[in-house]
Design a protein that fits this description.
About 45% of the residues lie in helices and about 15% in strands. The protein is of the alpha/beta class and about 280 residues long. The chain has a seven-stranded parallel sheet, with helices on both faces. A two-stranded parallel sheet has the order 7-11. Strands 8-10 form a two-stranded antiparallel sheet. α1 (about 15-20) packs across α7, α8 (about 200-210) packs across α12 and α9 (about 220-230) packs antiparallel against α10 (about 235-250). It is globular, with a radius of gyration of 19 Å.
Length: about 280
């Protein structure tokens, strides 16, 4: 079987590529530049260079002989890229597309509407699909690292609300299983971490991991928006983040499922393990 990973140099895509390599496959990757792909995977993958904003013949060449695709896209207009890939895949005879989506599709929160439109585009293409509707990533907590290192504090508008962040390795495990077994065709797989935690509880966990106290400080939506605009700029992404944090505070994103265990046979990785794995980022 031949697999193509789109988004192969990112947080989840790179993990899926490595899992495929470890299983004895030689996956293909579709990337904008060969440099990072070669740095990550050396000569263990087939590299196809192109841009989904203007795929042209480069995408068609990458799809030749491909059985399954793992697709990672982001941004307000991700539907455009999901549509380009899935329709081209169907024309090329690709059997299956696994799209990394979000749990927020089910609530309409944050980036959920973006991915809902992307899922619809994949459905419309007629290609067999699996959607991985994941909770927020534990690696999102890297965004807290600067304030924790400098001030020993995490400021957030999430209040006491909880969310079951999921380890990127668990997402990659489910994605690889979906891609290689075909056991989940036509399904939307809802996966979360093992426990819904408040940002304050996760702050305490990081403090224990690094051996020094870290405090949680609640801020308003307006303050959260102003702080986000400083690094993300004004626009849909900043709006989506504040919407997500508000939903956490209001208890609308505390879903916990056993999806990871059902698909991998093991419990999902807890947040304290992720924190221990990444202490260097917070010290």
């Amino acid at each position: 079987m031949k697999y193509l990973v789109i988004g192969a140099t990112g947080n989840i895509g790179a993990r899926v590529v490595q899992r495929l390599i470890n299983a004895g496959a030689r996956p293909s990757v579709f990337v904008r530049s060969t440099k990072r792909a070669k740095a990550l995977f050396c000569d263990q993958v087939d590299i196809h260079v192109g841009d989904l904003e203007n795929p042209g013949p480069s995408l068609g060449r990458a799809l030749v002989g491909v059985d399954g695709i793992f697709l990672v896209t982001d941004g307000l207009d991700l539907e455009k890229r999901d549509r380009a890939v899935s329709f081209a895949a169907n024309r090329a005879g690709v059997r299956h597309v696994v799209k990394l989506s979000t749990l927020d599709v089910r609530t309409g929160i944050g980036t959920g509407p973006w991915h809902a439109r992307g899922e619809n585009a994949v459905r419309e293409s007629g290609v067999a699909f699996t959607f991985i509707q994941a909770a927020g990533f534990m690696s999102n907590a890297f965004g807290w690292s600067e304030s924790i290192r400098r001030e020993g504090v995490l400021r957030s508008s999430t209040g006491g609300g909880k969310i079951a962040f999921i380890h990127p390795d668990d997402i990659a495990a489910v994605a690889t299983a979906s891609l290689t077994t075909r056991d989940y065709d036509g399904q939307a797989l809802v996966i979360t971490g093992p426990e819904a935690l408040s940002y304050g509880e996760m702050t305490d966990t990081i403090g224990r991991a690094i051996g020094k106290p870290v405090r949680f400080e609640e801020i308003t939506d307006g303050q959260a928006y102003a702080r986000t605009v400083e690094w993300a700029g004004k626009g849909a992404y900043a709006d989506a983040l504040v919407d997500i944090w508000r939903a956490v505070r209001e208890g609308r994103l505390d879903t916990v499922t056993d999806g990871v265990k059902q698909m991998t046979g093991r419990e999902p990785i807890p947040f304290d393990q992720w924190a221990t794995e990444n202490t260097a980022s917070f010290q």
